Amino acid sequence: MTSPLSPEARPAWSALATHYDMIAPLHLRDLFAQDPQRGERLCLEAAGVFLDYSKNRVTDQTLGLLFQLAAQSGLRQRIDAMFSGERINLTEGRPVLHTALRAPRGASVLVDGENVVPQVHEVLDRMSAFCDQVRGGAWKGHTGKPIKNVVNVGIGGSDLGPAMAYQALQHFARRDMRFRFVSNVDGTDFAEATRDLDPEQTLFVIASKTFTTLETMTNAHTARAWSLAGLGGDPQSVQRHFVALSTNAEAVAAFGIDTKQMFGFWDWVGGRYSMDSAIGLSTMLAVGPGAFKDMLAGFHEMDEHFRTAPFDRNLPVIKALLSIWYNDFFGAQTVAVLPYSQYLKRFPAYLQQLAMESNGKHIRLDGSRVDVDTSPIYWGEPGTNGQHSFYQLIHQGTRLIPSDFIAFAHSNNPLGRHHDLLVANVFAQAESLAFGKTTAQVEAEGTPAALVPHRVFDGNRPSNVLMLDRLTPKALGRLVALYEHDVFTQGVIWGIDSFDQWGVELGKVLASRIVPELVDESTPDLSHDSSTNALIRRYRELKRAGH
Ligand code: F6P
Prior knowledge:
The chain has 22 helices and 13 strands. By secondary structure, it is an alpha/beta fold. The strands form three sheets. The chain has a six-stranded mixed sheet, sandwiched between helices. The protein has a five-stranded parallel sheet with strand order 6-5-7-8-9, sandwiched between helices. Helix 7 links the parallel strand 5 (about 150-155) and strand 6 (about 180). Helix 1 packs antiparallel against helix 4, helix 4 (about 60-70) packs across helix 14 (about 315-330) and helix 21 (about 505-520) crosses helix 22 (about 530-545). The longest helix is centred in the last third of the chain and has 22 residues, at about 475-495. 6-O-phosphono-beta-D-fructofuranose binds near residues 209, 216 and 271. 6-O-phosphono-beta-D-fructofuranose binds near residues 158, 208, 271 and 501.
């Protein structure tokens, strides 16, 4: 029996499947030719973000059906349920309230009858006071010197958000302080991040929601040993050089960090949705409390837009439905995210966790197996670098790669003609993907016959162009919230829990079983499959041989 959560159970889904047969052969060239206003009509500006979605393979009828699909999937109710603190993360029995992290002081969001907004602001106030002390030099290291280096130790959402935000907001960051991010359990990450740092002026920010994650705990212990070694071994020094960002006070205390130096958050904040919680401490240390609050205001603006705008005027909803259209009807497997800003270098990596850890699922909320494709694979690089690398495939390869171009009207580093050249490339790429170059056009240029097919661009390759004014803290908040809600909307259509991540568990369990088998002095009894057993034996032999 079909689950009521199956998108295929919705009348609009079947209508879209039929409609697809009509749309697939249409070319964007024709769609634009038939409607000279298309480029001005199919765009939307809200919460400081302009979206041109005219270069998508849709007609008004397609969009109408997609909006019906959203309505039939109960999106309105699910948005209300999320914002009002219902336990929509069913498999973990938790509310999903990253939106409360950016609710203004005075707002009310209830969890089990308690307003959580005052707690959020209490932590923000403590973070601000701490950041002012560190940035102002009042917070001294164990030997009395001010802090100049901040090392965030975390992984997944406790690393990718802060690392992305630091990179994105570098223009607004303190240039006389150094910020480093250690995530990988590969000792190289820690060694390279700290090799030129002075322990007397280094603050470690241990970021872990659970405070049990193997990689982070391993790096945190190494950091403590490094710090103690550099500070004469006095255990008291830990209190001047370590702070914790976590929901687990007990584990923080057990590690040896005074909980007065812990900035907390709550189980209703998912790791990949936590960059605006206490997990953002390194961002706040870099850009200051004022700019951090501007970022939260940007998030909140987009939250309000998503919560209140009708679907046909709703940026995250439109973006999500277009993704569904390509993913589930055209069979597109990936989405390219192409920020035309060097500052957004880490944005695709950040988005990979946000989207793929959220929606990379094959089981629906009711335990039934999905019968359509869920999350596409997100990937990308900043333009224009990507143009000289993988864009060839987007233009002339055999796969359909819907692309998001992200551009800014103003540069934070206006240097000669650089910004005009950068933005010209955004428009040119989107134009050439959509309209291509026909055989007749190539021939008219006098191209030798043998080369003509090589120089033809089919076009009809869809893209969105997102344009914001300038990459500021507020703009970053708006942009991240847009993608958060885009991902949520897609999850609602597929009927899945976008807020759990059971798929990362098995590997963790197996790794902890294998560790003793690699380090045991005596030859362990191996009971894995023959491949894993042989790999373990080989590693042990090479290790023993000391190469
Ligand atoms: O990869 C699994 C995961 O649980 C992510 O969801 C999370 O962001 C990351 O590990 C880190 O978790 P923690 O903040 O608890 O160390």
